[in-house]
């Protein structure tokens, strides 16, 4: 990972050249020297600072991010001329006190003592006070000074406060250089010896300000890579480089200024890990200080955001900052803070573009292959998130394909990215740690096409909907064997099972959102007589396929809940896909209360409620989903002439199959559908075992070739597109009021 230049480098200060305390800064005043000539300035000592910039940035006196090449040289088109000079090894010399300054130093000491006596004379002789007494005096003095009256004094004897502070600071600095540790230095160190809280951060020393000890932080980082599903879903953190930077961050704090961007990355990793960490695992990790998981999670996240803002002010962008912003965005998304998630991803994309990451690092900037590959991986993760939020939030994406020539990342494990050997990419049928990310890129491009052609400012035609359905099908058929549902590849690489399940959810969810407008056709104007029969048949086929996909999605989630630990189900996709599927089915019952499959549809609505209720205790968005779905289902029951259910939806529903009650436990850790309750899972497996049907299959080849579908617009895409469920569930809303125009 690239590192940015530290904010400051320790060096030897030259002696201060400020005029004596009694001399006025104004040469026209009465205190000026008799001759009117100022004394010659003292010779400045050369500061042998280590050069931490490339030669070109050092020559131009510009800040350098120390990349290879750095971003500034890349922008200048001088990437091939960017190199770092090897810093000379400084020789250690004993401190030498300039005896010629002793008289001047004595005068400074007297000035400082006079200032202390004038400020704290009411407390007695400062020389007789202990360090602890002076610390207590300093902590209580501001209030006393605020209440004390100001006594007038001779204008010639009164010292301006700004000048007094400057003189005191100068004297104190020379004292610390000349005599080492002194009582006042000890006093100031004791005043700042307590560890700062998150509310009082010290950006100059992020290691001391970090909310957790290195031991706890190391355990959280290990959990992030080895036990959580975060690294399975988003391989943004390059593990080998991360651990090198981690050791330098904590062990090298006295030799080098800590990298603020890595500090942000580490805090974001810890916050995200605690977000997905199970209670038992968190208790084992945090046993050292008996810390509360949620409290530490919030502290870590606040720390990451604060340090990110400070880093953006004082140094240029780095790959660590891009990585940290990706993790912060994922955290915000899973907390349901949609607007901040949207803004963070947009900011990360703009930052990456400012670093030239939309252009290929190896082909355009002539970088070494490993660094160029790391940049590619981060860039395409940003691209994926940009397209996903575009489809789910119905907001425009930021990255346009015509502006980018960054090549696709290699299908290779992180351990294979070694500079000493040639980088090779494996076939997608040979899964690696990064195969899922490559598939996500292809999937996000499909979603971008759907958004461009169906959910933009133009109304799509029926042919466009058929084409987009076909694109989803092609992607599904083109998945590698290891990522197809029911394969055994997961036994070799366990994370592939989880990744393939997420892909299935994404595909089903996209189908639901694509076909759902055909259900909300209440406000559609009457069709023309010429094509009415064909259009109504198409609409009914699309509605039937949408219902089938909703049931398949909920059945698949039932099986996931019986196989995956509870804390891995916290992904926002799991919640929003359940809510959208159950909401769509409940809407069918409201708009078509006499539907032939009404009882079966209501069963799956209740299944969705149960799934959301099982996650409501650890995800507030799931809790909001339960309440919203409860209101909509009551509306459906009323439309069918059935009694409604009281409460807010959080009370468990009765079991719908005939099994002994002792086999069903609603307080199950993560599996609402108990494995002993085989009837529930059997029904889910039967639903998934049915063949998938497309709208094109229902039409048949003859109707598919009819040219009328090319020109007839789908009016439901103007009137029947629900607001984004992500935004609905992220804020306070009234379900009845929100769905009134659709239901």
UniProtKB/TrEMBL annotation:
The UniProt record lists the keyword Thylakoid: no
Gene Ontology annotations for the cellular component aspect, listed alphabetically: nucleus
Cell location: Nucleus
A molecular function (GO) term: zinc ion binding
Residues covered by region (Disordered): 1-47
Top-level taxonomic group: Eukaryota
Residue ranges occupied by any Zn(2)-C6 fungal-type domain in the UniProt entry: 53-84
UniProt keyword tRNA processing present: no
Predominant place of localization: nucleus
Name of the protein in question: Fungal specific transcription factor domain protein
Biological source species: Rhizoctonia solani 123E
């Amino acid at each position: 990972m690239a590192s940015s230049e530290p904010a400051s480098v320790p060096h030897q200060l030259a002696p201060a050249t400020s005029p004596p305390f009694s001399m006025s800064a104004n040469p026209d005043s009465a205190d000026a020297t008799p001759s009117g000539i100022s004394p010659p300035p003292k010779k400045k000592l050369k500061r042998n600072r280590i050069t931490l910039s490339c030669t070109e940035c050092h020559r131009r006196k510009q800040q350098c991010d120390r990349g290879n090449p750095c971003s500034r040289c890349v922008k200048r088109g001088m990437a091939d001329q960017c190199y770092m000079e090897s810093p000379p090894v400084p020789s250690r010399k004993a401190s030498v006190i300039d005896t010629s300054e002793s008289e001047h130093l004595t005068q400074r000491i007297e000035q400082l003592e006079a200032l202390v006596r004038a400020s704290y004379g009411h407390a007695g002789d400062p020389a007789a006070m202990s360090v602890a007494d002076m610390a207590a005096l300093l902590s209580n003095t501001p209030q006393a000074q605020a209440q004390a009256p100001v006594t007038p004094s001779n204008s010639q004897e009164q010292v301006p406060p700004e000048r007094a502070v400057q003189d005191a600071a100068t004297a104190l600095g020379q004292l610390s250089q000349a005599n080492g540790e002194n009582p006042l230095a000890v006093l100031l160190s004791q005043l700042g010896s307590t560890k700062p809280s998150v509310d009082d951060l010290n950006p100059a020393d992020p290691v001391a300000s970090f909310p957790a000890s290195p031991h706890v932080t190391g355990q959280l980082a290990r959990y992030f890579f080895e036990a959580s599903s975060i690294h399975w879903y988003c391989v943004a953190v390059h593990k080998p480089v991360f651990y090198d930077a981690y050791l330098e961050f904590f062990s090298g704090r006295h030799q080098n200024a800590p990298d603020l961007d890595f500090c942000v990355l580490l805090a974001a990793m810890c916050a995200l890990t605690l977000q997905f960490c199970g209670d038992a695992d968190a208790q084992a990790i945090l046993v050292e200080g008996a810390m509360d998981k949620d409290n530490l999670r919030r502290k870590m996240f606040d720390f990451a955001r604060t340090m990110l803002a400070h880093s953006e002010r004082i140094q240029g962008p780095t790959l660590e900052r891009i990585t940290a912003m990706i993790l912060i965005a994922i955290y915000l998304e899973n907390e349901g803070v949609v607007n901040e998630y949207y803004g963070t991803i947009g900011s990360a994309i703009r930052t990456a573009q400012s670093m030239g990451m939309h252009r290929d690092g190896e082909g355009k900037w002539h970088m070494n292959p490993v660094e160029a590959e790391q940049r590619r991986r981060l860039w395409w993760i940003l691209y994926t998130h940009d397209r996903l939020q575009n489809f789910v939030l119905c907001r425009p994406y930021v990255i346009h394909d015509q502006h980018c020539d960054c090549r696709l990342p290699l299908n290779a494990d992180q351990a294979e990215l070694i500079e000493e050997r040639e980088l090779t990419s494996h076939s997608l049928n040979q899964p690696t740690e990064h195969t899922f990310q490559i598939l996500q890129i292809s999937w996000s491009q499909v979603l971008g096409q759907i958004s461009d052609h169906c959910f933009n400012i133009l109304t799509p035609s029926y042919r466009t909907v058929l084409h987009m359905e076909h694109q989803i099908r092609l992607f599904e058929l083109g998945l590698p064997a290891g990522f197809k549902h029911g394969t055994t590849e997961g036994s070799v690489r366990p994370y592939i099972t989880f990744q393939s399940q997420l892909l299935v959810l994404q595909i089903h969810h996209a189908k639901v959102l694509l076909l759902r407008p055909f259900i909300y056709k209440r406000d559609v104007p009457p069709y023309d007589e010429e094509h009415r029969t064909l259009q109504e048949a198409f609409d009914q086929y699309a509605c039937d396929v949408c219902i089938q996909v909703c049931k398949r999605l909920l059945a698949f989630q039932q099986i996931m809940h019986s196989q995956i630990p509870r804390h891995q189900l916290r992904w926002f996709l799991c919640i929003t896909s359940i809510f959208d599927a159950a909401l769509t089915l409940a809407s069918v019952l409201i708009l078509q209360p006499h539907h032939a499959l009404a009882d079966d549809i209501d069963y799956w609505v209740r299944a969705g409620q149960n799934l959301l209720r099982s996650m409501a205790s650890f995800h507030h968005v799931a809790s909001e989903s339960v309440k919203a779905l409860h209101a909509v289902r009551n509306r459906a029951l009323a439309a069918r002439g059935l009694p409604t259910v009281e409460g807010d939806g959080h009370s468990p529903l009765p079991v719908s199959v005939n099994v002994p009650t002792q086999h069903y436990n609603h307080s199950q850790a993560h599996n609402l559908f108990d494995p002993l309750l085989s009837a529930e899972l059997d029904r889910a497996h039967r639903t998934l075992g049915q063949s998938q049907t497309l709208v094109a299959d229902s039409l048949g080849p003859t109707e598919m070739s009819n040219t009328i579908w090319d020109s007839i617009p789908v009016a439901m895409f103007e009137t029947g597109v629900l607001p984004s469920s992500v935004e609905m569930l992220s804020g306070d809303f009234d379900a009845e009021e929100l769905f009134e125009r659709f239901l």
